[in-house]
Amino acid sequence: MKRLHLHVNVPDLDKSIAFYATLFGAQPSVVKDDYAKWMLDDPRVNFAISTRAASTGAAGLDHVGVQVDSAAELAELAGRLKAAGAETFDQEATTCCYARSDKSWVSDPAGLRWETFFTFGEATTYGESPEEAQAKLAPAAVAAPVAATSSCCG
Questions:
Q1: Where do the VOC domain residues begin and end (predicted)?
Q2: Phi-psi domain of 97 (left: phi exceeds 0; alpha: psi -120 through 50; beta: other)
Q3: How many alpha carbons lie under 13 Å from residue 54 in its C-beta half-sphere?
Q4: pLDDT at residue 69 is higher than 50
């Protein structure tokens, strides 16, 4: 079953954890020095916050996405985006948001970043953003630019 994903950049992690814990009636399932995540069933959402972009003053919505339960579901979603003519940026076995995931990134017509992903393990580090991973590729291998921010998620 798919789960909606929202990632919000916040200036103060502790205050934001307190706010969202009250809003959701639940403590986060993951808390790190710069990151927190709720895996909620009502509403069915993977909601993450981080201070990764706080130094830029870019508080607010970073990206949205769809988390899937299998590599096959990820391939289906990425295939639909590509069939519709969207250019995607794909990542395999990437470390992001203290998790190991395969991902496919795309920007909607208004420029909002969407992440489709399958998470298959935990990680001890936050990882790299899609922009950092994309920068490591040869320019000809880059399928689609991803708007510059300092966040990733999973």
A1: 2-119
A2: left
A3: 11
A4: yes
Nearest to 132 by CA among 89, 99, 84, 101: 89
H helices of 63-154, in order, are 71-83, 130-136
pLDDT per residue as tens digits for the range 72-84 = 999 998 888 888 7
Pairing of the two strands 30-32 and 3-9: unpaired
- Please list, in sequence order, all residues whose beta carbon lies within 8 angstroms of the beta carbon of residue 69, skipping any fewer than 6 positions away: 1, 2, 118
Q: What is the SS3 assignment for 22?
A: helix
Domains, the chain, in order of start with CATH, read 3-141 (3.10.180.10)
Q: How far apart are CA 106 and CA 144, in angstroms?
A: 7
How far apart are the C-alpha atoms of 73 and 144, rounded to whole Å? Answer: 21
Residue 124 scores a pLDDT above 80: yes
CA distance 121 to 26: 23
- DSSP E strands: which ranges in 69-122? 89-96, 99-107, 113-122
The angle formed by the CA atoms of residues 131, 63 and 103, to the nearest 5 degrees, is 60
Instruction: Name residue 32's beta-bridge partners.
Output: 35
